[in-house]
Amino acid sequence: MSNESAQASSLLPKNIAALAAYSSAKSEKLTGTTWLNANESPYAKNLELSIEDLNRYPDPQPQLVIDRYAAYTELESENVLMTRGADEGIELLVRTYCEPAKDSIALFLPTYGMYKVTADTHNVSINALTQELLLNGSADEIVAAVGSSKLVFICNPNNPTGSLTPLDKVKAIATALMGKALVIVDEAYIEFCPEQSATKLINEFSNVVVLRTLSKAFALAGLRTGFTLAQVSVLAPIRKVIAPYPVSGVVASIAAQAIAPDAITSMRRQVTILNSLKAKLVDWLNASPAALKILTGEGNFVTLKLADKNYFKIALEQGLVMRAFTLYGEDDWLRISIGSEQELEQVKIWLDGLQTPATAASLAGNEVS
């Protein structure tokens, strides 16, 4: 290490020096022709864009976007905070409500990795619970395990397992933790099962927060736009902490078009198609010896345990990029995003090819070497 690097490292707080950064799908630097690794929508948007007023600062919370998203979620505009993706919402909640080196957040593993990374960044402890507890434990058991944690993150549907926590259980947890903790329901994939949304709890519970994004069903992953939904009393201190101009004028213009009534109708049609394609993929996986276990759940993805982790390498050689996972301590898990019909056909070709004698011989050769 150079002297300059050593000097820079000496300035780092211990929690940052020890931090393991979140590894996103796009950070893996893979190459391919069919991309089914980041739970992106296959539908590209055609939007109109005006950039004539970029010399002016934007509205910190663009009113048209706020009003339209409030209408979409059946909330009031005062219940909506627009952020740079749901990730900023996570960060703002931890930064606003948790005291470093004192408070903790509770999460249910395996789940989305940014909860932990954000807490580690702010020197906030992790109360690591399990999806098994969340799904099968009673509300009393869950609340007891949560203990004194200030924030409770429930990814619903959960990434990467697709599991869904019933709304009645979320309500029971929120009831028991009233005045003790915020229950944060991350609904990045809720458009694929909208009847399960916790937004209907916000008016009733001052400690329920819902995170949303335009990255999945709304097909705007590149826009980095999300929303934090909660009662006014919860959002008020967050508004003190958020950057003065978090939303660019360009982003606001695109987002307003994406959540216009006709665009929402289009999104719902696309979700219906994607859910149908997912069912077809699940049928293929059930018929394939390549998949030992399939976690279907909700959302625009399917997570499975491979019979042989070398199958992932074969997919890459074919230009098919999916998301390899270590799950439950095993490194042979794979998450497949639901792409277009043509993209999923590449998955079918890959699966069919794994059953050929040539592929079996090639895998045997890999095992010997």
From TrEMBL:
PROSITE patterns: AA_TRANSFER_CLASS_2 (PS00599)
Domain Aminotransferase class I/classII large: start-end pairs: 41-346
GO molecular function, one term: histidinol-phosphate transaminase activity
Cofactor(s) the record lists: pyridoxal 5'-phosphate
UniProt keyword terms in alphabetical order: Amino-acid biosynthesis, Aminotransferase, Histidine biosynthesis, Pyridoxal phosphate, Transferase
InterPro entries to which the protein is assigned, alphabetical: Aminotrans_II_pyridoxalP_BS (IPR001917), Aminotransferase_I/II_large (IPR004839), HisP_aminotrans (IPR005861), PyrdxlP-dep_Trfase (IPR015424), PyrdxlP-dep_Trfase_major (IPR015421), PyrdxlP-dep_Trfase_small (IPR015422)
Annotated catalysed reactions: L-histidinol phosphate + 2-oxoglutarate = 3-(imidazol-4-yl)-2-oxopropyl phosphate + L-glutamate
Catalytic activity, EC: 2.6.1.9
Enzyme's top EC category: transferase
Pathway stated in the Swiss-Prot or TrEMBL entry: Amino-acid biosynthesis; L-histidine biosynthesis; L-histidine from 5-phospho-alpha-D-ribose 1-diphosphate: step 7/9
Subunit structure comment from the entry: Homodimer.
Family: Belongs to the class-II pyridoxal-phosphate-dependent aminotransferase family. Histidinol-phosphate aminotransferase subfamily.
NCBIfam families cross-referenced by the UniProt entry: hisC (TIGR01141)
Protein's UniProt name: histidinol-phosphate transaminase
Originating species: Pseudoalteromonas distincta
Gene: hisC
